[in-house]
Design goal:
InterPro entries: DNA/RNA_pol_sf, Group_II_RT_mat, GrpII_Intron_Splice-Mob/Def, HNH, HNH_nuc, Mat_intron_G2, RT_dom, RVT_N. The chain has about 625 residues and is an alpha+beta fold. It contains 21 helices and 16 strands. The strands form six sheets. The protein has a four-stranded antiparallel sheet with strand order 5-6-3-7, with helices on both faces.
Amino acid sequence: MRETLKKPTLSCKRRKDMLTLGAQVKIHVILNPMSNTSKITWNDIDWGKTQEFVRKVQHRIYRARLQGDLGRVHWLQKYLINSKGAKLLSVRQVTTLNKRKKTPGIDKQIIKTPEDKLKLAEDLTLDGKATYIRRVWIPKPGKIEKRPLGIPTIQDRAKQALAKLALEPEWEAIFEPNSYGFRPGRSALDAIEAIFLSLHHNKSKFIYDADIRKCFDTIDHNALLTKLNTFPLMKRQIAAWLKSGVMEGYANNPKYEVQMSTEGTPQGGVISPLLANIALHGIENHLKEYVGNLSIKPHPESNRGKAAKQKALSVIRYADDFVLIHQNEEILELCISETKNWLKQIGLVISEEKSFLRDGINGFQFLGFSITQVKKVIKDKYKVKITPSRSAQKKLLLKIRAIIQNNKAASSYDLILMLRPIIIGWANYFKYCECKEVFNKLSNLIFKKLRAWAFRRDTKHGRKHIKEKYFPSGKTYKFDDHKHMNNWVFVGSKKTQNNMVKQIYLPHLSWICKRKHVKIKGNETPYSRSHYWAIRNITYSPYPLRIRQLLVRQKQICPICKRHLTTLDASNWEVDHIIPKVAGGLDAYNNLQLLHKECHLKKTQKDLLKYQPKNKTNKPNK
């Protein structure tokens, strides 16, 4: 069917604006005939066209917010949350694509079958109501204490995903340029690069590393709802989620009591990170305006202009962690005091035990990196040194040690399958800094643990025999577009169903090369649909080498659905073997393709039917 817009009762001027925007005319995006639900199945939906329809409306919301037309923004948001395409995408996100799709809420309900998914999409609507949240306690990384995680019901998760589709493009149009946490197209690496650009001017600077005490748990509800400034239905719905009760168990267990929420946003909800970003939005602009009006010069050589004073202060925020950087300690102390006053308005408090004001020479840790200003031999000249922090290194080694000790009887092949994604994932995050020395040290420590694991397994043969079994000599390994000759590479093998020997190796951490990260440009966002993202995805993106190569080869188009591989759906990209490995397909670029997750699932189903071995006839029992 063709989705059309009903004519709203608006003034002539407003109708003219709507026509110029293109929202009043028919949107020629073909969806499945949802009006006749007896003839539609979940698997028949054209997700490519459905997603393109939603992205177009989101782009219009983004443009309207840039122009400051809130009336148009709210009208388009209402249209989007009532459209069948947005409802379908929301249900698919929480029941198919999300990792926690099989985690139930208090009702123990999980949506698995296509029929149930379609029924949920048909009934989905924002009604200003919310069910209780199931709370579980998960350990903090590297700490004994635990933090609460809220798990809404699957219906509430779908409603939150629907609300997020409407709200996110509006706020992406006005979010501050140095806010990087939980935003599409932005990452922790952008925040680290922003800190580097602020410190690399050959001048010693002071840094205030701030930590907000229980940020998600103490946000003032009224302040957040006032800042949202949205239409009444959306406001009632978000208020219901904020004030929904919490249970540490399931609804059918009478021993668990409901605790009503009076402040904070529940961690674990689909929309929670966006609400936290909205609550903290404005701190950068406020501090810039504050220092611009101070009578103190940033440093003796600067002028007294407002622009110079604002440029001297850097505010870099990643979710609830942020740093303030300034050359003048007196001005920075005034900014810290002003920051505390600003946070009080939304019910937040700085944690004095975890927040520090220090000279850049002493260094600080942020998002797993250790950042220090190092004084050069030349007088009054400084450079910035960024390395993986010691705590991050320790966490990696402890994790690898636990895996090795808990899998003493596992095969070398299975052990490599467990270790490889952890080691490569860690290195891909930290390779955008001065990492060579750290990678070499960690590579040696990991090798010693693996060598001890191998020698412990076999006490009947000599060490040379064991070495050649697990660390064969004279082999060449290709990794990250480089060839490596090494006699101490951990190798594992196993036989497949076709009696073929399948071999895998564990690359050394030191093989992963350092790379320069290019910070995202200003206020750019994927909702702008500009050419900037097409260039960034290929040239400057932080994606692994394999994905970057496939993006170039495929011209950023999915071979199955012929849609563009955009930054907004980057979390749902998957690498596929054109000829599956079980059918003898090689792990080479001419046999690889980058697909959307839903396209990969469809292709895998076809491959199972095509390449599955024929069942052998069972002989009758004697």
